[in-house]
Amino acid sequence: MSKLETILQEEVLAEIQKLMAEAEAEAERIVAEAKEKAEAMVSAQQRKLEAQKQAELHRAESAAELAVATARVEAKGEVIAEVYRKVRERLEALAGTPEYPTILERLAEEAVEAVGRAEAVIVHPDDAPRLKGWAESRGLELSTSPEVRLGVVAVAAGGKTQVANTLPDRLERAWEVLSAKVSQALWS
Protein backbone atom coordinates (compact mmCIF):
# COMPACT_ATOMS: atom_id res chain seq x y z
CA MET A 1 0.00 0.00 0.00
CA SER A 2 1.13 3.44 -0.79
CA LYS A 3 1.80 6.11 1.66
CA LEU A 4 -1.21 8.07 0.44
CA GLU A 5 -3.46 5.09 0.88
CA THR A 6 -2.10 4.58 4.34
CA ILE A 7 -2.67 8.22 5.23
CA LEU A 8 -6.18 8.11 3.76
CA GLN A 9 -6.89 4.88 5.55
CA GLU A 10 -5.64 6.36 8.82
CA GLU A 11 -7.71 9.49 8.29
CA VAL A 12 -10.78 7.38 7.49
CA LEU A 13 -10.12 5.24 10.57
CA ALA A 14 -9.59 8.37 12.64
CA GLU A 15 -12.82 9.84 11.26
CA ILE A 16 -14.64 6.56 11.95
CA GLN A 17 -13.26 6.48 15.49
CA LYS A 18 -14.20 10.11 15.98
CA LEU A 19 -17.74 9.42 14.69
CA MET A 20 -17.93 6.30 16.85
CA ALA A 21 -16.76 8.27 19.89
CA GLU A 22 -19.30 11.00 19.15
CA ALA A 23 -22.01 8.38 18.62
CA GLU A 24 -21.05 6.65 21.88
CA ALA A 25 -21.02 10.00 23.70
CA GLU A 26 -24.42 10.88 22.21
CA ALA A 27 -25.75 7.43 23.11
CA GLU A 28 -24.43 7.82 26.67
CA ARG A 29 -25.98 11.29 26.86
CA ILE A 30 -29.33 9.93 25.56
CA VAL A 31 -29.17 6.99 27.99
CA ALA A 32 -28.27 9.32 30.89
CA GLU A 33 -31.05 11.71 29.92
CA ALA A 34 -33.51 8.80 29.62
CA LYS A 35 -32.36 7.47 33.01
CA GLU A 36 -32.80 10.91 34.53
CA LYS A 37 -36.30 11.24 33.02
CA ALA A 38 -37.20 7.73 34.16
CA GLU A 39 -35.94 8.43 37.68
CA ALA A 40 -37.85 11.73 37.73
CA MET A 41 -40.99 9.93 36.54
CA VAL A 42 -40.53 7.16 39.13
CA SER A 43 -39.89 9.78 41.84
CA ALA A 44 -42.94 11.82 40.79
CA GLN A 45 -45.06 8.66 40.74
CA GLN A 46 -43.76 7.70 44.20
CA ARG A 47 -44.59 11.18 45.53
CA LYS A 48 -48.03 10.96 43.93
CA LEU A 49 -48.63 7.53 45.43
CA GLU A 50 -47.38 8.71 48.84
CA ALA A 51 -49.70 11.73 48.66
CA GLN A 52 -52.61 9.46 47.71
CA LYS A 53 -51.69 7.10 50.54
CA GLN A 54 -51.59 10.00 53.02
CA ALA A 55 -54.91 11.33 51.72
CA GLU A 56 -56.48 7.87 52.03
CA LEU A 57 -55.07 7.50 55.55
CA HIS A 58 -56.43 10.91 56.49
CA ARG A 59 -59.85 10.03 55.03
CA ALA A 60 -59.84 6.70 56.88
CA GLU A 61 -58.84 8.40 60.14
CA SER A 62 -61.54 11.03 59.67
CA ALA A 63 -64.13 8.35 58.92
CA ALA A 64 -63.05 6.40 61.99
CA GLU A 65 -63.18 9.52 64.17
CA LEU A 66 -66.65 10.30 62.83
CA ALA A 67 -67.80 6.73 63.50
CA VAL A 68 -66.46 6.91 67.06
CA ALA A 69 -68.07 10.32 67.64
CA THR A 70 -71.37 9.05 66.25
CA ALA A 71 -71.22 5.96 68.44
CA ARG A 72 -70.50 8.14 71.49
CA VAL A 73 -73.43 10.44 70.72
CA GLU A 74 -75.72 7.44 70.20
CA ALA A 75 -74.52 5.83 73.43
CA LYS A 76 -75.03 9.08 75.34
CA GLY A 77 -78.48 9.42 73.81
CA GLU A 78 -79.32 5.87 74.89
CA VAL A 79 -78.10 6.55 78.43
CA ILE A 80 -80.08 9.80 78.63
CA ALA A 81 -83.17 7.99 77.29
CA GLU A 82 -82.69 5.28 79.92
CA VAL A 83 -82.39 7.90 82.68
CA TYR A 84 -85.58 9.54 81.38
CA ARG A 85 -87.39 6.18 81.33
CA LYS A 86 -86.33 5.46 84.91
CA VAL A 87 -87.42 8.91 86.09
CA ARG A 88 -90.82 8.33 84.46
CA GLU A 89 -91.05 4.93 86.19
CA ARG A 90 -90.28 6.52 89.54
CA LEU A 91 -92.87 9.23 88.95
CA GLU A 92 -95.44 6.54 88.16
CA ALA A 93 -94.44 4.70 91.33
CA LEU A 94 -95.11 7.83 93.41
CA ALA A 95 -98.85 7.19 93.14
CA GLY A 96 -98.42 4.20 95.45
CA THR A 97 -96.43 5.98 98.16
CA PRO A 98 -97.77 7.46 101.40
CA GLU A 99 -96.42 10.88 100.36
CA TYR A 100 -98.45 11.00 97.15
CA PRO A 101 -101.66 12.53 98.62
CA THR A 102 -99.59 15.42 99.99
CA ILE A 103 -97.83 15.85 96.64
CA LEU A 104 -101.19 15.76 94.84
CA GLU A 105 -102.59 18.48 97.14
CA ARG A 106 -99.54 20.68 96.51
CA LEU A 107 -99.96 20.25 92.78
CA ALA A 108 -103.65 21.16 93.13
CA GLU A 109 -102.83 24.26 95.24
CA GLU A 110 -100.31 25.46 92.64
CA ALA A 111 -102.73 24.89 89.75
CA VAL A 112 -105.62 26.65 91.52
CA GLU A 113 -103.36 29.57 92.40
CA ALA A 114 -102.13 29.81 88.81
CA VAL A 115 -105.60 29.78 87.26
CA GLY A 116 -106.91 32.58 89.48
CA ARG A 117 -110.57 32.03 90.33
CA ALA A 118 -110.92 28.26 90.05
CA GLU A 119 -114.26 26.52 90.00
CA ALA A 120 -113.14 22.92 89.48
CA VAL A 121 -110.22 20.53 89.48
CA ILE A 122 -109.86 17.49 87.26
CA VAL A 123 -107.89 14.45 88.41
CA HIS A 124 -107.34 10.85 87.34
CA PRO A 125 -110.17 8.58 88.58
CA ASP A 126 -107.70 6.83 90.93
CA ASP A 127 -106.83 10.18 92.54
CA ALA A 128 -110.40 11.43 93.13
CA PRO A 129 -110.73 9.84 96.60
CA ARG A 130 -107.38 11.37 97.63
CA LEU A 131 -108.41 14.90 96.62
CA LYS A 132 -112.15 14.83 97.44
CA GLY A 133 -111.86 16.36 100.93
CA TRP A 134 -109.38 18.98 99.74
CA ALA A 135 -111.69 20.08 96.86
CA GLU A 136 -114.78 20.20 99.11
CA SER A 137 -112.97 22.30 101.71
CA ARG A 138 -112.24 24.90 99.00
CA GLY A 139 -115.66 24.78 97.40
CA LEU A 140 -114.32 23.33 94.16
CA GLU A 141 -116.04 20.83 91.94
CA LEU A 142 -114.03 17.63 91.51
CA SER A 143 -114.23 15.73 88.23
CA THR A 144 -112.16 12.94 86.72
CA SER A 145 -110.44 12.19 83.46
CA PRO A 146 -108.23 9.19 82.71
CA GLU A 147 -106.01 11.52 80.65
CA VAL A 148 -104.92 13.47 83.74
CA ARG A 149 -102.14 11.43 85.31
CA LEU A 150 -100.13 12.18 88.46
CA GLY A 151 -101.50 15.65 89.01
CA VAL A 152 -104.44 17.97 88.43
CA VAL A 153 -105.98 20.38 85.97
CA ALA A 154 -107.52 23.49 87.55
CA VAL A 155 -110.44 25.04 85.66
CA ALA A 156 -111.19 28.76 86.03
CA ALA A 157 -114.67 30.15 86.57
CA GLY A 158 -116.49 29.96 83.25
CA GLY A 159 -114.36 27.03 82.13
CA LYS A 160 -112.37 28.98 79.53
CA THR A 161 -109.00 28.80 81.27
CA GLN A 162 -107.28 25.67 82.48
CA VAL A 163 -103.93 25.08 84.14
CA ALA A 164 -102.45 21.60 84.08
CA ASN A 165 -100.03 20.77 86.87
CA THR A 166 -98.95 17.14 86.56
CA LEU A 167 -95.66 15.50 87.37
CA PRO A 168 -95.16 14.21 83.79
CA ASP A 169 -95.81 17.72 82.41
CA ARG A 170 -93.36 19.22 84.88
CA LEU A 171 -90.77 16.62 83.92
CA GLU A 172 -91.25 17.45 80.22
CA ARG A 173 -90.82 21.18 80.88
CA ALA A 174 -87.69 20.61 82.96
CA TRP A 175 -86.19 17.76 80.94
CA GLU A 176 -83.97 19.87 78.68
CA VAL A 177 -82.19 21.40 81.68
CA LEU A 178 -82.20 18.13 83.61
CA SER A 179 -80.81 16.10 80.71
CA ALA A 180 -78.00 18.62 80.29
CA LYS A 181 -77.16 18.24 83.98
CA VAL A 182 -77.30 14.44 83.71
CA SER A 183 -75.04 14.56 80.68
CA GLN A 184 -72.61 16.85 82.46
CA ALA A 185 -72.60 14.64 85.54
CA LEU A 186 -71.97 11.50 83.51
CA TRP A 187 -69.41 12.76 81.00
CA SER A 188 -67.53 15.62 82.61
| Global shape | rod-shaped
Uncertain spans:
none
Helix count, DSSP H or I runs of 4 or more residues: 4
Classify the secondary structure makeup into a structural class.
alpha+beta
How many β strands by DSSP? Answer: 4
Amino- and carboxy-terminal Cα gap: 108 Å
Q: What gyration radius follows from the Cα positions, in whole Å? A: 47 Å
| Overall pLDDT level | 89
List the helices and strands in order: HHEHEEEH
Explain this structure to me?
There is one protein chain. About 75% of the residues lie in helices and about 10% in strands. With about 190 residues, the chain is an alpha+beta fold. The chain folds into two domains: about 1-95; about 100-185, ATP synthase, E subunit, C-terminal (hypothetical protein PF0899 fold, 2-Layer Sandwich), CATH 3.30.2320.30. It has a four-stranded mixed beta sheet with strand order 2-1-3-4.
Layout of helices and strands:
Blueprint: H1 3-94, H2 100-115, E1 118-123, H3 128-137, E2 141-144, E3 151-156, E4 162-166, H4 167-187
Parallel strand pairs: 1-2
Antiparallel strand pairs: 1-3, 3-4
Helix pairs in contact: 1-4
Describe the structure concisely:
The protein is built from four helices and four strands; from the N terminus they run H-H-E-H-E-E-E-H. The chain has helices at 3-94, 100-115, 128-137, 167-187, and strands spanning 118-123, 141-144, 151-156, 162-166.
